[in-house]
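Researcher: Before we compare anything, I want clean individual predictions. No alignment, no superposition, just each chain on its own. First chain goes here; please echo the sequence and then give the structure tokens.
Model: Echoing the first chain and its structure:
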Amino acid sequence: MTIDEAARVPVVIVGAGPVGVTAALLLARRGIRSVVLERHRDVYPLPRAVATDDEVCRILQAAGVGEEFAAIARPANGLRLLDARHRVMAEFRRTGHGLHGYPQTSMFDQPELERVLRDALARRPECELRGGVEVTGIGPDITGPVRVTYRDGDGEHEVWADAVLGCDGAGSLTREAIGAVWEDLRFEEHWTVIDVRTTADVRCWEGVDQVCDPDRPATFMRVGEDRYRWEFRLREGAEQPVRELVAPWLPPSYDGDFEVVREAQYTFRARVADRWRRGRVFLLGDAAHLTPPFIGQGLCSGLRDAYNLTWKLARVLQQGAPAGMLDTYESERKPHARHVIRLAVAMGWAMTGGQDGAAALRRRVLAAACRIPGLTELAGRDLSPPLTAGPLVRRGVRRGVAGTHCPQPWGNVDGRRNRLDELLGDSFTVLTATEPGPSLTALAHSLGIRALCVTDLGDDGTLAAWLRAGRADAVLLRPDRVVMDVVPAGGRDFRSKADWAALLHTTRSPVPAERTASLLRSTTL
């Protein structure tokens, strides 16, 4: 079939929710043009996702909306487990300033976030949003440009793309187009979600409350200045009116303003698509995975997908990196997403107690475990596990910090004071605990990356402490700030550093063999 070059773009994104628009912004930052196809003409007005963590705030920063998001978000204290009488069983505290430079947990209104993202999209000449369209077909060619067909008020159209990102939700057409099916992780419960606006003095601790009641498990959180969310597991038969359900949180006999913004019933499921890619067509967000909401990681996982894939796609499309680099998207993100989903399922069963004969026993075990010193602090730490080992993450016997994100303190480079990611830009970077020697500096220069000592960044000691805790003299950071490789502390075995030339060449166009050999011969500090 002849391709109309006028209808060809580097990337087509199906779906203009937070994941799709964030992906477009991250690509635009790297100079990659995209067309975003969305069936709605405007932002969907009702709230859905309400929580994010500090690592994902860092992704929004990379997309260019960090400050705008901070202005609409509300820091949260963390999670409390309550018994059926609303007595506190345990607190999982989250701090107001995490390692990534933002509150560890933030509450927000999804329509407000989507408006922030769309406003940013409108400012980027690399992005085009086509709303009010229905995507009717994708592919099936897996060896060349992908044909995407869509329908609008003017009829049928087609566009050809070097890559297609399916950010089109749980009922994804893209997932169907690549022949992916769901793997069921065996969790399914029916809940009602109620969003309310009121100026009442609602009983609230500025965090999330999970009521561990076998008869009526519930979740409650404050989302905004006058906005609250309740979630209740549905019972068989007749349901109580909203005011009766939320009465324990309201002042006695309250009869003031109380607006139900949304009341909807959901089936919470745990699922992962069996494949996330076919050729140059990829699945992201709810198209690739579904999680129960108990640890607030649904949208977070989708934004992590976008961050992981976009920098790799940009290097393949723009810098001639081998196409095999794109294989690492699924191999890195799928185990990570599966871990988070299983954690959400485990938390859900522990907190709601389930509905079987062992429910009471589980609640007693949970209550006893919450009294173990230090356990709740440990459980309240970062919910994002390290990436598994692979072509872009080197992990030996001592895992240390490999596969994790480095912290993001404020720093100062070349007279500029800003958060770390803004100072480092979009390239690979070597961070060292002490001043890098001439050979390491020369190697970094030859590879087109920077070598920086953390003491020269002007931070508050966060990075130095992190390197010491990870027993590292130096780390190689990817553009998404994941630690790609580590130089161990205290030894003279820099074999892993010596391989950086070959390692980095998997992310860029090949160089002559004699050039690689020359680099590998000069790799001692």
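Researcher: Okay. Second chain, same rules.
Model: Second chain and its structure:
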Amino acid sequence: MTTEGRHDKRWWLRWLLVAAAAALPLGVAVPFVYLQASLLARHDARGAAEVVMRQADAIFAEADRLAAEMAPQAGKSCAEADATLREAAFQPYFRAIVLVRHRVLYCSSITESFTLPLAQLLPEGEVPPGRSFHFVPGTPMVPDRPAVMAIRLDQAGDGVIVTVDGRYLRDLLDAVGGTGRYRIGIEALDGRHGLAGRRVGVPPPGAYFVQDVVSTIYPFRVRSLADAALLAEYRKRLAGSYAPFVVLLALLLGYLCHHFLKYRFSLVAAIRRGMRRGEFEVHYQPVIDLRDGSCAGAEALMRWFRPGQGAVRPDLFFAVAESSGLAIPLTRHLFKLVGRDLRRCPMGPLFRVGLNVTASHLVEPGIVDDVARLRKVVGSGAADFVLEITEREPLPPIEQVYEHMGVLSASGVKLAIDDFGTGHSSLAYLERFPVDYLKIDRGFVSAIGTDAINASVLEMIIGLASRLGVELTAEGVETREQLDYLAAQGVHYAQGFLYARPMPIEALRVWVDAFHGAP
């Protein structure tokens, strides 16, 4: 692909990511608005049902009270009870008060004496003695208008029926239901009979969002469901209230994503330019043999100095390089710079220089040629090399890795696992790879002398290396206490600020000549 094609691809990718970031608030806001609208609709539907239930309970309580008050009139003749019946009938909510003798209706507050078996009025079930309530589609005098009957009977079948006119309950349902804002109704607990307003229906059992409120006193429940139009109204209202916030957040995320990607893509391009323009240097940190106190080698560390900006943190540009496919080119550039340094300033055949390589580089067939080219450039007497496999990414479990590592090991190149215990290494790798060194991460070294869990892990790593016959190098040694502990535990090598900071090759040459084995 041409450079122009790569730039076009990166440009489209950048704006695609910016658009995705800007769309994220919308993607979150839409389901949130739908969810909140549903919760509000449920809440309001339940509130409407509770309003109806409170009013209905009050009406039923009045009917219950009146039935208990009129119960002593049961069994009397119509002439004897007529005045009391007619006086009670003037109270609100009630259509009629009827007396019952031996389960036969015989006297009413609105008619002369008559005879009607109770079973004929309520054919669907036996009315038990005591207090009970029943929905009826109509009464003998008003057959086309539903009602609720509050009935009190004694064991002999004598008692009274107070009929609540369904008009009052229907008006209540209409008032609460509004102009179709809720589907709401009141029904018996068995669900066989009920009452709905004139403009709304009763939601069926199991309907989505349905809210049931059951009376704690009487055998009725109110079932309410917010209408779809009310739900849409809530969504529209919520969307309007959240819209400014969502727009501002979308703009902010889009801007931040654009700024980040611009910086990231510019950093990738800057790394490429930096390699071409010679902005990268290699600094070397000495590695000390704790058994005899000599300087056994050094780790080669890449440093980037941007003109006008100064040094760039290694963890920053290495992370960008690894995620953008520049890790291998950057490692090859490291090899080139190390070869140049060692040709200019050879350190001797026993001096080992550690070079960081990534797991992805080990898969490349060119890894063997890259190392061979470096060794050829520096010659046989300038230094020896240790490839330090970083654990920032897992080692691919493929045969090419084992084959390449075997070839490198056979050629005399030493192999180490860097920052052991913090990344993706495992015992399986140690069993199959010809590893010569394990490098202990500075985090474990800094835990020496503390009760941190890392101190226990350090002991485990030391014991594991001893059993496997692998030499250990401790990184980040900064205190004499750490050094004494590591030496006492049989750790072979150490590097850190206690000895020296990373330095250019010429300074390393001077430092090694002046070093006498004591920090």
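Researcher: What stands out in the second chain?
Model: The two ends are 53 Å apart (CA to CA). Additionally, The longest strand covers residues 295-306.
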